[in-house]
Amino acid sequence: MKKTPTRKTAAKKTTTAAKKTTAAAKKATAKKTATAKQATPEKNTTTKKTAAKKTTAKKTTAKKTTAKAPAKKTTAKAPAKKPPALKRATVAPQKATAAVKGVPPAQTIVEKTPTGESRTALVRRARRINRELAEVYPYAHPELDFTNPFQLLVATVLSAQTTDLRVNQTTPALFAKYPTPEDLAAANPEEVEEILRPCGFFRAKTKSVIGLSRALAEDFGGEVPGRLEDLVKLPGVGRKTAFVVLGNAFGRPGITVDTHFQRLVRRWKWTEETDPDKIEAAVGALFPKSDWTDLSHHVIWHGRRICHARKPACGACPIAPLCPAYGEGETDPEKAKKLLKYEKGGFPGQRLNPPQAYLDAGGIPAPPLGAGS
């Protein structure tokens, strides 16, 4: 007799069927997932490559942009770096007041001329004055008597605080007794003082000439050196004295800044400096170096003969139209002529033995000491 299935048995069969169905579903899902994973790497690889290409493109673009940026900055900064232009601006008188970083101010260029005229106008006026004076004094020369560099050196030292005329009247006796540096170096100071008494400050001058003579004998073999740096080391010798010797005994250009030169260049508004060294630099910048020695003679001669300190003869001055100080002295021509000195006024010059050119031009030699002046 067959057994009738119970409810428990039916339930078990139903559960077993459900489990099989679930397992089959899981297997199907697993297969689909595997298939999807196989397809996904390819897509991911493609996507990664595309992203990499885009990133590389962006980096390349960024590099180009970065490379171009410095060029733009360099181009922008380039105009600021123009040393030649800045230097020209410093030298040019109209732009000399502009402050420029890294460029030192010009030392030898006057920013503002004393008269307010341009630098070019000042140079032209100064050089024209020198040309006019060269025509008036074609025979200008050093007004100290000398026959060699040693005599000129000693005479120039003695000319301080006195006239060239007085020195020329004194030195003949000095050089007759002491013709060489060795002779003067070994001289009795009291005897030298007695000879130099007419020159004034004779004790100090005696010390200087004996001292420089000793230095020449001991350090330079009894010869006067032809270099500025050597001359200024000698006792009583400064730049003015050195340039007189260099220019007139050795033919080396130099500016002699004596009292006449200082007075006239300030009166003509070539400079407002008062220190001799600064005057020398300021005036020297207006002229070629080759003109310096003759320029000194022209200015000094004019100061002694016409453009005097207290009563300049403005009415008889050949450069009156070029002089900013015209009118400080006598402007009437007839009265001004009475103020002229030396050969311009018919008086003797300052040298006992002047050059022949001076005599040919009507110059009169100075009288010896004791014969009047």
- Strand % is under 5%
Note the run of SSEs as H and E.
Answer: HHHHHHHHHHHHHHH
Whole-angstrom Rg: 49 Å
> What is the tally of helical segments?
15
Decide which structural class fits the backbone.
mainly alpha
Distance between the termini: 188 Å
Largest sheet: none
The residue-averaged pLDDT reads: 81
Are there runs of 5+ residues with pLDDT below 50, and where?
Answer: 1-6, 36-52, 57-100
Q: How many β strands by DSSP?
A: 0
Shape assignment: flat
Helical proportion? 55-70%
Secondary structure: elements and pairs:
Blueprint: H1 7-77, H2 83-91, H3 119-136, H4 149-158, H5 164-177, H6 181-185, H7 189-196, H8 202-219, H9 228-231, H10 239-249, H11 259-267, H12 276-284, H13 292-305, H14 333-337, H15 356-360
Describe this structure in words.
There is one protein chain. With 373 residues, this protein is mostly helical. Helices cover 56% and strands 0% of the residues. Helix 4 runs antiparallel to helix 10, helix 7 packs across helix 8 and helix 11 crosses helix 13. The longest helix is centred in the N-terminal third of the chain and has 71 residues. It is flat, with a radius of gyration of 49 Å.
